[in-house]
């Protein structure tokens, strides 16, 4: 009995401490940032058009070398703007794909202006829960590994809406299926 209990506890510890495994390499992003490596599971079931566009941009190298220009502690880190100012994008606006998916720690969403149909290339990663975003922004995925690297992204000035001076870079982003082993 004691041996069985020990084996069950050991199995549980191993299951909890093992890194998340991407179920679908075609819908998994690997992001190298200044603070480490982050793995994101994309959710085409929630936002098929946004996910397809993100993968298209990733495969073109669009995000490589961009910065996290807006980072608000306890809220989110925003990147994906080629100008680094928060006003740029790829030039293709997407219609909103809102769902009931809650915006909690690790969720990746699409940034937009006041217009619901204005999301482009900018995205954000949640540091915590923000129910005010639920059903009002498009969720595209979640961090499944490397959230500690996201937590270390340089924060912005809260008095300046989280704008970061000398922001951390997103070095490279790839679709896992495209990475040569």
Sheet with the most strands: spatial strand order: 3-4-6-5-7-2-1-8
Give the overall form.
globular
Number of helices: 3
Counted beta strands: 8
Examine the secondary-structure arrangement and name the CATH architecture: Beta Barrel
Radius of gyration: 17 Å
What percent of the residues sit in helical stretches (DSSP H or I)? 10-25%
The CATH homologous superfamily is termed Cyclophilin-like
- First-to-last CA distance: 43 Å
Describe the structure.
It contains 3 helices and 8 strands. With 181 residues, the chain is an alpha+beta fold. It has a single domain (24-178), classed as Cyclophilin-like (Cyclophilin), CATH 2.40.100. It has an 8-stranded antiparallel beta sheet. It starts with a helix and ends in a 6-residue tail after the last strand.
Brief descriptors of the model:
alpha+beta; 181 residues; Cyclophilin; eight-stranded antiparallel sheet
Brief sketch in words of this structure:
The chain is of the alpha+beta class. 18% of the residues lie in helices and 23% in strands. The model is unreliable at 5-19 (pLDDT under 50).
Chain-wise SSE layout:
Elements: H1 2-17, E1 28-33, E2 36-42, H2 48-59, E3 70-72, E4 76-79, E5 107-110, E6 123-126, E7 139-145, H3 147-151, E8 170-175
Antiparallel strand pairs: 1-2, 1-8, 2-7, 3-4, 4-6, 5-6, 5-7
